[in-house]
């Protein structure tokens, strides 16, 4: 990581208690730690000399920072990266900024967000799985609690003179702490956000969200959540700028979109009627052609074979095509509407003359496209854990086709559309072994700092790199301590040098991945990967029936490792494991080293933990997930 420039402090008058109190109240000056008293204390005021610590302020003219992170968007969904779903605002930001085409996430939401906020790997900051009780475990890498020694971007910038706001999805507060009684240490306000409006969990209803503001739950007003968070983000900035014109702010804008439930007004979904009637196979072909024209994938890229789970669109019945198409129309409308709400925020910054001096990072997805709608798509939230047959689910979806996308349903699209919106990669969300789970689009927009407009950057980068890159842009050094708590070293690597140099070499050479048993290790263009968890059908059966839990593969030693040269084969079509066994062994050893370094062990498959908890009986009390699965296999 490149060394950052020192931040600049603006001296303030030292005219006594009253003036200092006014300044603190008006401008929110902060200090990272108490300073030694440098005045004189006598027996009387006349014999004494006052001393006021110099407040910390941001450099004059320091840019604002906006991080935007979308949810469950595959590489081939947005038109900004060649997809068939219209996202004109994202296109505009990309065309006037930079497209990073080799950016990576962790393959699922909470680990990605914990890594983004802290600049360190998710297991290192204790979020190897989730912060939810049912998907966490009592080990350092798995307990779901961000440590104080791994400060967030909000904590860092707050103590550098920024106001800090967050809206939307947070996702890294432990369930047992997510009540109005707290404790609030792991709420956003306990992690550096001066104001936060949104929800603490991983997903929520768009019209009846589980809303909080600051440190209390509040009643939603019935409008779509995306509209509410945009209004709130704008209001935070308006109030702040009125009180302290020119003071920089950090905004974390994190819509629930487009995670399930897919809910959006018909004014957004109806314009897509008939647009996907030619199916997911045609979508894939059109998208990869668009991506080549845009230059966001290699010109010689080849589309992976259709996944064996996915049906040939041409062989589907008319009713199947009708239902599946409607799911995609709603998803597309949902993403276009999300783009519109981002546009409201961008337009406000432009109209208030703040956009030119704002650094914007847009992560189009916190993982690959969602496979959680299963083969048929979901209208009911619990479709894929009830043990229903595919035909039963389909008939229910057909019966309720007119309700898809409405507040009365909890929808998610079928797996075929997940594969389509993940072009040019195979696999999808949760698959940390595959680029389909971890390879997402990134846009960087900064008019004052980026000379080239519409440029393409192919340097390898990862979500932990966003924080150090932001600090380098601002000329801010990572603090040694935050509020007197000594900090761990940030693990990410700044790609600041690539903003104005398309040929800059990536500093990020090694990166491990692990989600629910699926795992991989990247080393300077080479990647070894092992799939672990089963396909959607097996998972559905196991989750609904403890007797079928043996369908899940809990034996990590039986996982088959593959080897890819992603510099030459970016979408993993040619497994080189048999050709280069020594290279594979070298990478597997490196994975073990990284796992030990980052609190990754013990290896845990979330389905093991989930099964143990949802099928809890006196006979399973005190038994490990491995023991339960072994028993189920018998």
TrEMBL record:
Keyword presence, Transferase: no
Domain (Sulfatase N-terminal) ranges: 63-476
Entry annotated with the keyword Hydrolase: yes
UniProt keyword annotations, A-Z: Calcium, Hydrolase, Metal-binding
Entries under Pfam families matching the protein: Sulfatase
Record InterPro entries: Alkaline_phosphatase_core_sf (IPR017850), Sulfatase (IPR050738), Sulfatase_CS (IPR024607), Sulfatase_N (IPR000917)
PANTHER family xrefs: ARYLSULFATASE FAMILY MEMBER, BLL2667 PROTEIN
Similarity section: Belongs to the sulfatase family.
Protein name listed in UniProt: Sulfatase
Organism listed in the record: Flavobacterium frigidimaris
